[in-house]
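Journal club prep — side note

Before the paper discussion, L.F. wants everyone to see what a predicted structure for a comparable chain looks like in token form. Sequence:
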Amino acid sequence: MTQARGTHRVREIRIVASSAALSAVVAVFACSHQNAGRSEPASVVLRVGVPGLSPTNPGAGLRQLTQILSVEGLARLAEDGRLEPSLAADWSTRNNGRSYLIRLRPGVKFHDGSPLTPGIVASLLPAAMRETFGPIADDVEQVGVVDATTVEVRFRRPSPFLFESLEAGIRKPNAIATGPFVAVPNSTNELRANDVYYGGRPQIGEIEVETFPAVRTAWAKMLRNELDMLWEVGPDALSSLEHSGNVGVFTFTRRYQYALALNTAAPVLKSPAIRRALNMALDRTKLVNVALNGHGLPSSSPIWPRYWALDQKIHESDAPDLVQAAKVLTGGANPNRRGALHFTTLIASDTLYERLALEVKRQLEGVGIEMDVRAVSQDEQLNAMRHGQYEAVLIEVISGPTILRPYGFWHSRMPGNPGTFGNRSVDEAFDALRNAEGESAYRNAVVNLDRTFKEDPPALFLAWSVRARAVSKRFDVQGEEGRDVLSTLRFWKPTGGRQQASRH
């Protein structure tokens, strides 16, 4: 669930990923699906280039693509964080909101051809919740079969927070799931259409994936009609692609945000007043324009800006206040009363991180704060975060679109926390939200959580990242408003001018 660039239920933040490691993930899927999704020779092949794999993002590329296209849950997340039916046809509540009766969608089969039944869901869901959400699964009292089409999920108390855990992916051992695509046996870079998909066989018969060291390399191959899609285009390359006549560029706000995590045990940052002053000194709109080429969304808390329970009014005062920040920093809260406040930020050796850090540094200098920037290796960064041997560290964290994700990272007792992030007041606000019963109490708890992140900030939240999928206009891409266009890939189809892909 919650992670810094892809950390899943482990006591660390995995920072480095290579194309070989990502290919290995697809290989695992392929080996487990010897009989899955068999189809006739594909008439349409989508050739996907995965360029510029960030050394800090193990969630990029093949693993994410396989996860998105192969695995489904009972529900999927709308852009406002609400749940929408997926493998579930619908649901209703009983037992004063503690229980959900979930009626399964008819005709769903796993990639191995076996049907999705209430019994299988009841046996798989508890483990799926625990794998995805860790100790939160302790709040599930029971998952049981009601009848031939219905399963009951009973929580220990009624809670909108717990209900969001129904998005957990349903898959059998060896990663056999129900999605529209399945990994090709004995291949590390191919997916094939699932012939028995309940929503109908995708128009695209096969997906071939190739990795590239940089966007420009993949882009050149795409211009030669040797690729059909660039998996993810970052802010450095996005502007140059947007005006291409032969490529459609589909931007979306990722559910990740850049944040400057602060070590609240470090003497220089121990005071909440000092950390509030740092927050007040930042002009996030300017930071997005300068460091991200305008391709980002300013953020000042880990709560998704479109979240249904978020009170937007609380963010109306997010504009920088340099006068007040300077007043705090020259007062008694500054532990270095003889001079400027000084601390060091660790960053990964990455151009984007360097630009973000340097712009934060420049803005903080405006109120007399000296921030050194030090690029370190992944091992150094991991070790520093585990043992608290840092003052600040610049990271990218998955936070949206529900509260479950930031809970799993910033709560000190969650496995997704590297061990030194967060603080006691944030823990208490999260716990109150987790225990809130009913929608009204939950909204109040979200407001309190948002306020806590401002009053006792464990980090400076900077911006939500914006990315794009670039797709050749040889494909008719069926978009869905408010979502990453990849979610509609099974509906894509070639236009009349489509040239067939050659096998690699």
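L.F.'s comment for the group: Residues 1-42, 54-60, 498-504 have pLDDT under 50 and may be disordered. Keep this in mind when we get to the figures.
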